[in-house]
């Protein structure tokens, strides 16, 4: 296949601190929302609403135990102690970039402290320096589902302006600390996910609010604080490191109309506009009129300080990054149709697509559509920072792991990504999600594996944690070596 990938294309992978590091209570780290996430073996793996849900009782229970069996994000894959070994494997793969996040609670354990935790600063400096030794550029997310739990309990999360100020302080501290090592930053991971799981994304416990409407108003208030924080941090980054770039990160859940019925088309258009709301704000620097109208119709009072809107307008992001896992279908007659449920949303079953064992519809052509639509809409460089498939892998007696299904998934998506570039999309890079097996975000499982590298650990934390190369490891290595030209099976 002819490759249209730029010569300086950033191939790599992506992980999050809360799903990989472990070491949840060492070296001064405080509790985060991730330390409340529980493995729920008796809940259907496709029941994502229940898997994600966290209430006041769940928080209380988590705070009273040091258990790491049913709180898997507390142990991760021990990346905190094994990062040099893992980075060596990523170097062997040929990674140009690795997306990681900085756990806020390693730097400010409760979020409010006057001085940062030195052990936390030293860990991430060591991590970034080791990446430099391996010729891997860091792409660093400031907020990836790991805000301090103290700020949830005492400040109602991002609904509070005080939390915004504390986050800005955190962001400035780490940007200044690592300006010599980090040139690519993301402010909030899947900022739009606050609609799907407000506790994990913004520390909002919905049962604290009298009704659904009040909870929704709180979500929009938290959104505003995160938008303003992103702009202020972008401004600061440009001041201290003019050659650095700051991006937004959103979930692209492409929505199709089930039929050519204009009502179906209008419904799909509505869903897509809502999906792109957060990137619209961070790119264009203003709220879309349809959102302002919605607030007015519902009598939402979103409190803004003088100067907030000017800040949003003056300091937009430099590039747009996004995750892409699946598309969805909607219909005005949706109640009568067969449904599928994935981590991101529930929609009508698309008869033209295959479905993963976790209920995610696999749509590589939709990936190309999403890339073209995003670039045409924003005219800013794009960066695919999450994409991949969760699957159950089997280790054979000889230690090999034949994951042809993963190779096929990536092959089909890379072909469409290549064609999108041919179609004129300015694409900076691509980081597969979980290039090494990590604890799943939604179900807190290890058996839902995304990686090219297998980690010998089960859902209950048992195993040697030894790293093994899957068949896909050698395939992805070849893809990177040829800059996307050779996608054939090995």
Describe this protein's structure.
With 490 residues, this protein is α/β, with parallel strands linked by helices. It has one domain: TIM Barrel (Alpha-Beta Barrel), CATH 3.20.20.80. The chain is 39% helix and 14% strand. It is built from 17 helices and 16 strands. The strands form five sheets. An eight-stranded parallel beta barrel has the order 1-2-3-4-5-7-13-14, surrounded by four helices. A hairpin with a 4-residue loop joins strand 9 and strand 10. The chain is globular.
What key phrases describe this protein's structure?
single chain; 490 residues; alpha/beta; TIM Barrel; 17 helices
Question: Major sheet: size, sense and barrel closure?
Answer: 8 strands, parallel, barrel
Strand order of the largest sheet: 1-2-3-4-5-7-13-14
> Percent range for helical residues?
25-40%
Number of domains: 1
Radius of gyration: 21 Å
Shape from CA axes?
globular
- Provide the β-strand percentage band: 5-15%
Q: CATH topology, what is it called?
A: TIM Barrel
User: Count of DSSP E strands?
Assistant: 16
Question: Which runs of at least 5 residues are low in confidence (pLDDT < 50)?
Answer: none
């Amino acid at each position: 296949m002819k490759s249209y990938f730029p010569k300086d294309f950033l191939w790599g992978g992506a992980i999050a601190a809360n799903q990989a590091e472990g070491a949840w209570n060492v070296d001064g780290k405080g509790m985060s929302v991730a330390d409340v996430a529980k493995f729920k073996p008796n809940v259907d793996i496709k029941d994502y609403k229940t898997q994600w849900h966290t209430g006041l009782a769940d928080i209380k229970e988590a705070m009273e135990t040091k258990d790491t069996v049913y709180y898997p994000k507390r142990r991760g894959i021990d990346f905190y102690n094994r990062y040099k070994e893992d980075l060596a494997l990523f170097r062997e793969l040929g990674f140009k970039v690795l997306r990681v996040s900085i756990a806020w609670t390693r730097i400010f354990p409760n979020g409010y402290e006057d001085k940062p935790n030195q052990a936390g600063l030293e860990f991430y400096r060591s991590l970034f320096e080791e990446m430099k030794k391996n010729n891997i550029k860091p792409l660093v997310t400031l907020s990836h589902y790991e805000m301090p739990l103290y700020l949830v309990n005492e400040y109602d999360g991002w609904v509070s302006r005080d939390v915004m100020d504390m986050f800005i302080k955190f962001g400035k501290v780490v940007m200044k600390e690592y300006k010599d090592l980090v040139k690519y930053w993301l402010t909030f991971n899947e900022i739009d996910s606050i609609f799907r799981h407000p506790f994990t994304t913004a520390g909002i416990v919905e049962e604290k609010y009298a009704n659904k409407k009040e909870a929704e108003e709180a979500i929009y208030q938290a959104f505003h604080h995160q938008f303003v924080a992103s702009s202020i941090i972008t401004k600061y980054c440009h001041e201290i490191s003019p050659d650095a770039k700051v991006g937004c990160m959103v979930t692209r859940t492409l929505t199709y109309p089930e039929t050519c019925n204009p009502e179906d088309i209008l419904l799909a258009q509505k869903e897509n506009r809502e999906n792109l709301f957060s990137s619209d704000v961070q790119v264009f620097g203003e709220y879309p009129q349809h959102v302002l109208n919605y607030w007015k119709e519902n009598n939402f009072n979103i409190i803004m300080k003088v100067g907030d809107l000017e800040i949003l307008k003056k300091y937009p992001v430099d590039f747009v990054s996004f995750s892409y896992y699946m598309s969805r279908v909607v219909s005005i007659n949706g109640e009568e149709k067969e449904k599928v449920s994935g981590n991101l949303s529930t929609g009508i079953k698309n008869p033209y697509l295959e479905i993963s064992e976790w209920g995610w519809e696999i749509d590589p052509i939709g990936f190309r559509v999403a890339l073209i639509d995003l670039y045409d809409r924003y005219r800013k460089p794009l960066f695919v920072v999450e994409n991949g498939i969760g699957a159950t892998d089997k280790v054979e007696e000889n230690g090999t792991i034949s994951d042809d299904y993963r190779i096929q998934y990536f092959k089909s998506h890379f072909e469409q990504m290549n064609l999108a570039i041919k179609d004129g999309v300015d694409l900076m890079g691509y980081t597969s999600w979980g290039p090494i097996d990590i604890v799943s975000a939604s179900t807190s499982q290890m058996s839902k594996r995304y990686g090219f590298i297998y980690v010998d650990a089960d859902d209950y934390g048992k195993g040697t944690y030894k790293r093994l190369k899957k068949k896909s490891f050698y395939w992805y290595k070849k893809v990177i070596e040829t800059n996307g030209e050779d996608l054939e099976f090995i």
